[in-house]
Amino acid sequence: MSAVSLALRNLRGVAILLILAFHCFSAYIVNQPAQAPPFDLAPYEWRAMPIIDSERWLGFDLFCAFQFLYLMQLMFFLSGLFVWPSLQRRGASKFIWHRLVRLGVPFVVGVYLVMPVAFYPVFRLTAIDPSWSAFWLHWDALPITPSGPMWFLWFLIALNGAAALLYRLAPGIGSLLARPLAGAAAWPGRFLLVVVCVTAVAYLPLAAIYTPWKWVGVGPFEVQAAFAPQYALYFLLGLAIGAHGYAQGLLDPHGMLVRRWAVWVAGTFLAFFLWVIPTALIVKSPGAPVAMLQVVGDLGLVIFAAAACFSLAAVFLRFAAVGWPPVVDTVSENAYGIYFFHYLFALWVQFLLLDLAIPAIGKGLIVFAATVTLSWAASVLVNRLLTAGRTLAVRAAVLSGAPPIAAGLFSATKFSD
Fold first, then answer.
1. Which is more confident, 312 or 254?
2. d(Cα 28, Cα 16) in Å, to the nearest integer?
3. Which of these, 320, 415, 313, 356, lies nearest to 2 by C-alpha position?
4. 303 in helix, strand or coil?
5. Does 42 have pLDDT greater than 60?
6. Which residues contact 304 (CB under 8 A, 6 or more apart)?
7. How many C-beta atoms surround the C-beta of residue 48 within 10 A?
8. What is the pLDDT of residues 194-253, one digit of tens each?
9. How far apart are CA 292 and CA 289, in angstroms?
């Protein structure tokens, strides 16, 4: 594995851990309702804040706000990096079949099997009858299909499908997409400005209509209305960098982005204040010019998201292009499986800690440690079961003379990349 690939792999693992931390700490932020919202009443606010604890800490508010603004953009950016090389290697048909099985099967299992179990403790918070049978009646009667973090999988399938269609219609378009990246290694600041301008055009009009936590869609196919174009654009950015050669251009380990990593990190924190200050004024100052502050805050959001993605890439290319300790390495190896299982464990541990007199910081850290450990263990267990299933499928296919279709299915759904 090249140094750049290793750095990006480590970045993916840390990004998954940050997502886990966000969901684990969100039960203890100060900016929470006083009580859990009713399970059966629209707009079903429990989907955003499932477990609400009376213990709060302002530090978790700042941490969660920081992660909320850029983390999924980073995930889509990383997801797009290896798409074009994979299309060139597999071809459009094999690529999309692989993605449908690898992402689609976990999406269906996650939405219809894992998420009901994950949200069961949320129902228990306000239920008169907390039994599973009562929960299932209420769950089945909901006019929505809560998908939790599984929404990322279906949206990624859609973006991968669009990329495969683009490749089939115009295989040479990769070089066209990659052309603007030729000077990105020498002038990453200029490239950041381009990214900010494009994402601002996509985000600002929608931000005037939808709040950042407004979800739209049908059934389990929901996405944040204001952020969806940003996610698609960051995926496209990753796709273009991958088509150009992800070790070249912007992510050149010897380029200006990496050499000036400290400047990028400092700029990222400054951009965060460009969002948080007008947002705080809107909340705390009734007489403030809300419309103007909202535009400034929205612009600060897109600047911060781009700066955070660029600075994290710079830091990891500078410092994480070598092997990490085994514990960290196994988290990166099982990042997909950890993401798949984490919400189930996070909500249940938060629920079990509700009545314990522990400060918010302690509860948050306990939930995070338990969620990482249990999600990692579940991912490892499923990987071993799938590996065993694949071995049995191959042997059965050899003995029967049939094509090993089941073996391919097990391999494609393995929770490691």
1. 312
2. 20
3. 320
4. helix
5. yes
6. 69, 70, 268, 271, 272, 274, 275
7. 12
8. 999 999 999 999 999 998 888 999 999 999 999 999 999 999 999 999 888 877 778 888
9. 6
Sequence-ordered alpha helix ranges (H) in 218-325: 228-244, 256-259, 261-284, 290-319
Q: Could you tell me how many residues make up the chain?
A: 417
- Cα separation, 281 vs 287, in Å, equals 9
Whole-number Å distance between alpha carbons of 247 and 259? 15
Structure tokens at 210: 């939808």
Beta strands (DSSP E) in 26-98 are none
The CA–CA distances, whole Å, from 200 to 41, 152, 187, 382 equal 34, 22, 20, 41
Instruction: Find the Cα–Cα–Cα–Cα dihedral 281, 216, 372, 346, rounded to 10°.
Output: 80
> Six-digit token pair at 186?
């020498």
Residue 229 tokens, joined: 């174009």
> How far, in Å, CA of 275 to CA of 280, rounded?
9
Q: What is the pLDDT of residue 402?
A: 57
Residues 125-147 have pLDDT tens digits of 999 999 999 999 999 999 999 99
Q: Sign of the CA dihedral 145, 99, 4, 73?
A: negative
In the beta sheet, which residues pair with residue 221? 218
| Tokens, residue 69 | 């603004």
pLDDT in tens, 59-90: 999 999 999 999 999 999 999 999 999 999 99
Question: Tokens 């059966």 appear where?
Answer: 40
Helices (H) and strands (E) in the chain, counts: 19, 2
Assigned token pair, 61 = 């508010």
Residue spans of the domains in the chain: they are 3-412
Distance CA 109, CA 185 (A): 42
What's the whole-number average pLDDT of the chain?
Answer: 89
- Residue 50, pLDDT > 90, answer yes
Question: Read out DSSP for 332-400?
Answer: HHTHHHHHHHHHHHHHHHHHHTTTS---HHHHHHHHHHHHHHHHHHHHHHHHHHHHHHHHHHHHHHHHH
Residue 414: how many other CB atoms lie within 10 Å: 15
CA dist 389 → 15, 118, 334, 381 (Å): 30, 26, 18, 12
Helix (H, G, I), strand (E, B) or coil at 256: helix
**Residue 278, Cβ density class (10 Å: 0-12 exposed, 13-18 middle, ≥19 buried):** buried
Q: How far apart are CA 316 and CA 78, in angstroms?
A: 13
